[in-house]
Amino acid sequence: MKDFRDLIVWQKAMGLFEDVVKDVEKFPSSEVTRIISNQVLRSVSSISANIAEGYGRRKGKEYEHYLYISRGSTNESIDWYEKLKRLNYISEETFAQREAICEEIRAMLTSMINKLENK
Fold it and tell me: Which parts of the chain fold into alpha helices (H)?
């Protein structure tokens, strides 16, 4: 692979980012919504950003460190989506779709981390 953009996990994380941007544009306008929108955007954008940064380092433990951060951001994103669902800002169906993508990304990151740990 020549570039982090070739990684399927990065591509999926970018797709999730595009989805969250579309989601937050539909939210009602309020101070709470602004804060929550900012947080979910940050957590989702952190997933792909840390994959990219870690890929640039390409050294075992350093790369692994950024993948762990990315995986943590994936869990954080699920938490924010849960909050959005409970506030009725997103539907149960949207939540299920976003959670499934997050779980897929998390599994891919875990696999990458395990491969690095076993080297």
Answer: 8-25, 31-57, 60-86, 92-117
pTM for the model stands at 0.92
Which amino acid belongs to residue 97?
Q
Q: Which of 47, 50, 27 is nearest to 37 (CA)?
A: 27
Separation CA 48–CA 45 (nearest Å): 6
pLDDT confidence bin for 117, thresholds 50/70/90 = confident
Q: How far apart are CA 30 and CA 32, in angstroms?
A: 5
Q: What are the pLDDT digits (tens) for 59-113?
A: 778 999 999 999 999 999 999 999 999 999 999 999 999 999 999 999 999 999 9
Q: Are 84 and 90 in contact (CB under 8 A)?
A: yes
